[in-house]
């Protein structure tokens, strides 16, 4: 710990904003929220060469603590499994191209669809602008729109989720 404190003081004195160190199993990353000047790398190298770094001692939890930690994580894991099961029944409409997502045909116009709307196969859900071309994205399933993953004006990637539709 003394060596680590010396390293931190050295970094602060020389206004080094970010520092990574790896030696064997030990990995240290320090990042300061101050603007740094050009670091004195030669001095830093001498300091590190002179200071051997010991590996941290492993942490052992008593057996009585392990079931308690596992019990605390179980409800979250069950909630994740339930959400995953619900998501499995939903159809995801993905972006076929890279571009900018728009929920309506023009600014101020009503959205093509809203959460809770019933959509038909082939109905326009949104527009993705790519290279000054407006591409209508159609639903490939009939059902209820239950989730929209992006906001109007947001850039989207190829294959990015746009809508979740609960099929009829």
Task: Briefly characterize the structure.
27% of the residues lie in helices and 30% in strands. By secondary structure, it is of the alpha+beta class. It folds into 2 domains: 49 residues, no CATH class; 77 residues, RNA polymerase II/Efflux pump adaptor protein, barrel-sandwich hybrid domain (OB fold (Dihydrolipoamide Acetyltransferase, E2P), Beta Barrel).
Description of the molecule:
The chain has 168 residues and is α+β, with helices and mostly antiparallel strands. It is built from three helices and ten strands, in the order αββααββββββββ. It has two domains: 2-50, no CATH class; 91-167, RNA polymerase II/Efflux pump adaptor protein, barrel-sandwich hybrid domain (OB fold (Dihydrolipoamide Acetyltransferase, E2P), Beta Barrel), CATH 2.40.50.100. It has helices at 2-13, 41-50, 65-88; strands spanning 18-23, 26-31, 91-94, 99-102, 118-119, 124-130, 133-138, 143-148, 155-156, 161-167. The strands form three sheets. The chain has a four-stranded antiparallel sheet, with no helix packed on it. A four-stranded antiparallel sheet has the order 7-6-4-9, with no helix packed on it. Strands 1-2 form a two-stranded antiparallel sheet. The radius of gyration is 27 Å and the shape is elongated. The relative contact order is 0.13.
